[in-house]
Amino acid sequence: MRVAIAGAGAVGRSIAQELLENGHEVLLIDKNPKAIKVEMVPRAEWLLADACEISALDDAALERCQVVVASSGDDKVNLVVSLLAKTEYGVPRVVARINHPNNEWLFNESWGVDVAVSTPRLLSALVEEAVSVGDLVRLMTFRQGEANLVELTLPEDAPLGGQRVGSVAWPRDTALVAILREGRVLVPTPDDTLEPGDELMFVASQDVEDELAELFS
Questions:
Q1: Which residue ranges does the record assign to the RCK C-terminal domain (predicted)?
Q2: Which CATH number applies to 131-213?
């Protein structure tokens, strides 16, 4: 994929390095000359420009990007970049960083955001995930409420323990996408059994989360 990252600070550079290692093309954009540190991510393309300006995004050839990441430290900038990427250039996937939790409600499809990442929310979710057994923990929201990535660790006395994945009547709009077991990541098949201690990862609509949790209670 070709990925444009608006915001070449520590977060943007870290994302760029990870994507480059996975074989993607990356363009880093920042208007601050001090942020243009080519030597830190030499394999990336760099552009000194304001990502909130159409002319800069034209220079970045944003229409050729499959993904845009708005990763600056300013929520206003990230919203503008997301909106322009989606409405002016038709970028298929827009990921935006939320810096201030109070602004989380803005980061939705109305502003062109497909996936919003809130560091405080993610950290709190990971804390919950680390200590919760038998409780549904929301890790990430896709398209601001249409679907969530949720995790549940199967307790020892769970009624579904020992049952086959294919025999469980999962709620509508729910997909079991991975089972984490003893350090391994398993792609579930209908014949796999659910075992106590399994970490189950689901993509599910928000309105069926309670129903999903009841299956394990």
A1: 137-217
A2: 3.30.70.1450
Q: Read off the pLDDT of residues 50-96 as tens digits, 9 standing for 90 and up.
A: 999 999 999 999 999 999 999 999 999 999 999 999 999 999 999 99
Confidence category of residue 144, pLDDT binned at 50, 70, 90: low
Alpha-carbon distance 139 to 198, whole Å?
Answer: 17
DSSP H helical ranges for the chain: 10-21, 54-59, 75-87, 119-131, 209-215
pTM check: above 0.85? no
For residue 169, what are the contacts with CB-CB under 8 A and spacing of at least 6? none
Token output for 111:
């502003």
Domain boundaries of the chain, sorted by first residue: 1-117, 131-213
What is the phi/psi pair of residue 206, to 5°? -60, -35
CATH class entry, domain 1-117: alpha beta
CATH topology identical between 1-117 and 131-213: no
Whole-angstrom distance, CA of residue 207 vs CA of residue 217: 18
CA-CA distance, 65 to 43, in Å (whole number)?
17
